[in-house]
Amino acid sequence: MSTLLAQKVSSENDTKEIICQVLDQSDKLPVVFATVSIKDKNNGVIADADGNFRLPYKYKTQNNVLVISSIGYETKTLEVTSLLDNQKNIIFLKPKIEALNAVMISAKKNTPKKNFENVREIVGKAINKMKANFPTNPHSYIGYYRDYQLLENRYFNLNEGIAEVFDAGFQTNKLLFKDNQTALYKFKQNSKFPKDTLLTMAYDNEKYKYIKDATISSIGGNELSILNVHNSIRNNQYHSFSFVHTFKDDFLYNHEFRVAKKLYLDDTLIYEIRFFAIEDVTGVKNTADGVIYIAQDTYAIHKLEYFGYVVGDADPFFSVKIEYASKDDKMFLNYISFNNKFKIKSRNDFEIEDISYDQEDNAFFVRFNNTVDRTTIANSKNFRFIYKKRRLKINAVSLDNSKTVKISLINGAISSNEELNEENMKALKYKIKNVTDITGRALNKRTFIRVNQFRELFVQEVFKSKTLPENLYFVNKSEKLSESLINKDVLTNVSDYWINSPLKATKN
Fold first, then answer.
1. pLDDT of the residue at 59
2. Are 299 and 321 within one domain?
3. For residue 265, what are the β-bridge partners?
4. Least crowded by CB within 10 Å, which of 3, 148, 455, 479?
5. What pLDDT shows up at residue 109?
6. Which residues in the chain show pLDDT less than 70?
7. What pLDDT is recorded for position 343?
8. pLDDT at 250
9. Close Cβ partners of 123 (under 8 Å, ≥ 6 residues apart)
């Protein structure tokens, strides 16, 4: 093969991808955030909420092997060469779950202490052993970061990139300590997904964009910092989010715990413990629940899922999903996903665009931004015009076109000698009521759409002992990520980390 041809093939393989989806073998549902590792290498990728992931084609040409795992499933190994090109590869994982014996574990305080551990005691031990189970030495991890809005199952404003997060250890403040920094190696808005600037406007306390009964911390000033704030495992000594508050001090006392299942991750037995926030913490308007996954042998916290609800609403107004993975004797971040729901004023409210006066027709023309329901304009009493403190008598109301209403005045209502120019129109006052558009939207009534805001980081490689280098540009925590400097040509193996963009086909 000539050098030129070899270079062409290599370039094509650098951009080509294999598409896969991980499903539960029993119910055929996606295995959310399954871990996909490259065997005998220290890197991999996390499947998304639909079980989808992209794999660079080079791993097929190099005859690599995938190791796919998730808590509650048997780990699966397969050769990349077995995966097909130009179609989605479905990979099934077999559940590995056992029912808990009530004698072994109990949520009740008054159960005889024989051959079991109380659920609350398990959670308490997990919290007390966090210093032993999580790293206190400097380390870093490189991962795929993204933030986006999800509206009617469509992705909007997808920003994504590859970032290296430097952490001086769990004993330090994640946001404030000087050696806790992030470097971007790639970052941009994905042009293949739709953009909508309305969805990215700042929160303004219910006028145009707001979160009902909640606020998002402004600490840090960008989406990545907001994501970091909501990692209650990493920030266990500091306030994270409602209703966990400070995980180390408040989590155990803010919740009631229930037994769920006994799961396995390879041969590690993990308790899946469900919990519910008490009403004294949430108040009567909200509820919260979730699941915590704790290893039986070390009491290491492997995963935490938390959901906050408005009472009566089955769809959470925020959710946090965090998973840590064991690397030798310590737990390192595997992924974090934070979603909050916000409301934003729709662009399509029914409004008046302009009002003009035609002297020859002796009529006002009111132009709306949408098609008018003609049945709602029949009553002339729905229209009132006052000019220079004098109410103008109306002769008839009709549609001039689908979006314009003509209000004809009686003869002499406005003197034929008086020109209603732009200056004189300032003396005009009007009131229009009970008029709707053809969709039934009332005039000047604000309508809001509900949107999900996601911020996510999926780790692809962990460096268990790595201090903060001096040759990198770091993200300014008070500025937008899009304004951060990119560290180009710093990683010699940058192709080992890849952008795992959502598959648009899964969001119709």
1. 93
2. yes
3. 73, 268
4. 3
5. 54
6. 1-15, 99-116, 205-206, 212-221, 504-508
7. 87
8. 97
9. 251, 252, 257, 273, 275, 292, 294
CB atoms within 10 A of CB 24: 19
Q: Does residue 302 sit in the same domain as residue 158?
A: yes
Structure tokens at 492: 């010699």
- Cα→Cα distances 115→106, 257, 299, Å: 10, 19, 17
Give pLDDT, residue 106: 53
Nearest alpha-carbon partner for 277 in 252, 303, 312, 302: 252
**Residue after which a domain boundary falls, among 75, 95, 115:** 95
Distance CA 431, CA 428 (A): 10
- Number of separate domains in the chain: 3
Structure tokens belonging to residue 456: 């996510």
Contact predicate 116/129, CB 8 Å? no
Provide the CATH number for the domain around residue 393: 2.60.40
* pTM to 2 decimal places: 0.81
pLDDT value at residue 216: 54
407, part of any domain:
yes
Range of the domain at 397: 352-432
Domain ends where: 54, 70, 95? 95
**Collapsed DSSP state (helix, strand, coil) of residue 197:** helix
Structure-block tokens of residue 52: 């989808």
| Number of neighbouring beta carbons within 10 Å of residue 190 | 19
DSSP designation for 71: T
Residue 403 lies in a domain: yes
Residue 367 near residue 351 (C-beta atoms within 8 A)? no
